[in-house]
Structure formats: structure tokens, C-alpha cells
Design a protein that fits this description.
This protein is mainly beta and 128 residues long. Helices cover 0% and strands 48% of the residues.
């Protein structure tokens, strides 16, 4: 599985951005897709995720009500709509895809090994 992110940019506080992650390769077994971020000098942290089987979404408390994660199954694309951006949202944003046994992908109940994939990241800078 290959993941390619795009959409990162410099934006003023209060502004909006939409990040895009396109997955290619052997994607049938993907059970979760998510966004993580890593600010300078900090560890990578979870931002938002979308479950393939149920379509449910989960968010970090720091972005609830401001960010929205969505997915286009046909295009194998994950989006992150980011509104009301703050300077503390500045980070490299990474797309993640997991295959976890015991969960549904888009096509079937996945029972294979646990696999994790990452994109190369896209820079988001929030500054006046």
C-alpha cells in the first residue's frame, strides 16, 4: 500500500485547509485510515480516524468540532477538513492505513496479519 498526502500549506489562524490522502496498491484489506501529526520536538500524535467497515469516525479531543475526516471508498481517498486552525495545529500531517485482524475492510472481514502503512507527510503551518 502506498499513501500520498497533499494539501498542506501556510494559513492564518482561524483559516481552513483540506488535506487529501490517496491510497494505491493492495488496499482491499484496509480496516482503518487515519491522520496523525508531529510538531517539532514532539511525538507523533493521533488526530482522526475513519473505520472502513462501519464508517465511524474518531477524533482527538484537541480537534473535535474543528476537524472532520471523510473517505471516498471508490477513489481510495481520505480527507481531513480542518477549520478554525490554531498555531498549535502546526505540524507535519501523516496519513496512516492499518490492516487489523478482527475488523471489516470495505470488502471483507480481515483475518490476515496486522499491517501498518504511512505516507510521507505534508506540512501545515498556522501563523499570522
Amino acid at each position: 500500500v502506498q499513501l500520498v498526502e497533499s494539501g498542506g500549506d501556510l494559513v492564518h489562524p482561524g483559516g481552513s485547509l483540506r488535506l487529501t490522502c490517496t491510497a494505491s496498491g493492495s488496499t482491499d484489506g484496509i480496516t482503518f485510515m487515519a491522520w496523525y501529526r508531529q510538531a517539532p520536538g514532539k511525538e507523533r500524535e493521533f488526530v482522526a480516524a475513519r473505520f472502513s467497515g462501519s464508517g465511524n469516525a474518531e477524533y482527538a479531543d484537541s480537534v473535535k468540532g474543528r476537524f472532520a475526516v471523510s473517505r471516498d471508498k471508490h477513489e481510495n481517498t481520505l480527507y481531513l477538513q480542518m477549520n478554525s486552525l490554531r498555531p498549535e495545529d502546526t505540524a507535519v500531517y501523516y496519513c496512516n492505513a492499518d490492516m487489523v485482524p478482527g475488523y471489516y475492510s470495505d470488502r471483507y472481514f480481515y483475518t490476515g496479519p496486522t499491517l501498518r502503512y504511512w505516507g510521507q507527510g505534508t506540512q501545515v503551518t498556522v501563523s499570522s
